[in-house]
Amino acid sequence: MNEIIHPTEKTKLKRIPKRGNFERETIYKILDEAFVCHVGFVANNQPFVIPTSFARIDDRLVIHGSAASRMMRSLSEEIDVCVTVTLVDGLVLARSAFHHSMNYRSVVVFGKAKVVSEEQEKYEALKAFTEHIVPDRWAEIRPPTKNELKGTTVLSLALTEASAKIRTGNPVDDEEDYNLDVWAGVLPVHLTTGAPVADDRLKSGISVPPNILNYSRK
Ligand SMILES: Cc1cc2nc3c(=O)[nH]c(=O)nc-3n(C[C@H](O)[C@H](O)[C@H](O)COP(=O)(O)OP(=O)(O)OC[C@H]3O[C@@H](n4cnc5c(N)ncnc54)[C@H](O)[C@@H]3O)c2cc1C
Fold it and tell me: Is the CB of 27 under 6 A from ligand 1?
């Protein structure tokens, strides 16, 4: 599957291009670990960048929301959209302010989203979406009704124009600064969940399922 998504004029990295990556597999791994994206689009000459959740289904990203939201209404018109996904892996603490940085894996996707209108496809997208965020959750919950499906817009964005950028490793200081008495290195950053907090109205006798108890994004 390790096919390359060919760089375009838009996705070609300019600064530190060696950190760029166009392998489908690498891009998909980043998308699959994340669950929040930022959706950039222009409506009435005003740029918006809206955070939302997403899932990947094969070679597409899906997002969903209320049909009344500006983001969903605008994207439904198949306008240009740019979606970014960011995973922060570490704070890179250099000896100088200038060389402080972050270790990260990020993806930028360009395209035009399409409305998923066929009912079964929409249902499958919502299922994939739920499973992407909490694996095995779909089997535990009540699925959406026809009315709930009707009130939800699902958009699909093909992963045909995309780039990843990855920074790993130590700070890169100026040679003369390595002698300074300053602690330098990387402070790893991980996404972790806390202990589950039961809903105040949880029926008695229901225990926390293992997929929630052992939740992890890796
Ligand atoms: C957590 C985090 C912190 C960062 N902090 C800084 C910072 O403080 N200062 C700074 O200048 N840069 C920072 N970056 C890098 C920043 O995202 C850009 O890569 C940078 O601005 C250089 O862009 P460019 O001029 O090469 O490309 P641009 O001309 O902006 O982009 C050209 C194309 O390259 C691709 N691209 C560019 N950046 C990324 C990316 N991050 N992920 C995937 N594809 C990308 C896109 O397809 C884009 O259209 C950070 C990135 C992350 C994820």
Answer: no
Total residues found in the chain within this entry:
218
Contact predicate 72/48, CB 8 Å = no
Q: CA 75, CA 48: separation in Å to the nearest integer?
A: 12
Is the full-model pTM beyond 0.85?
yes
Q: What angle do CA 17, 86, 122 make, to 5 degrees?
A: 120
Taking residue 53's Cβ as centre, other Cβ atoms within 10 Å add up to 15
Which residue stretches of the chain have pLDDT < 50? none
Instruction: Classify each residue of 133-166 as buried b or exposed e, where b means 16 or more C-beta atoms within 10 Å of its C-beta.
Output: eeeeeeeeeeebeeeeeeebbbbbbebebbbbbb
pLDDT of residue 1: 57
Domain ranges of the chain: 17-173+190-213
Query: What's the CATH architecture for 17-173+190-213?
Result: Roll (2.30)
C-beta 142 within 6 A of ligand 1: no
The tokens for 85 are 């996904």
Alpha-carbon gap, residue 65 to 58, rounded angstroms: 20
For residue 139, CA distances in Å to 34, 134, 149, 154 come to: 22, 11, 18, 21
Ligand 1 touching residue 11 (CB < 6 A): yes
**Cα(84) to centroid(ligand 1), Å:** 10
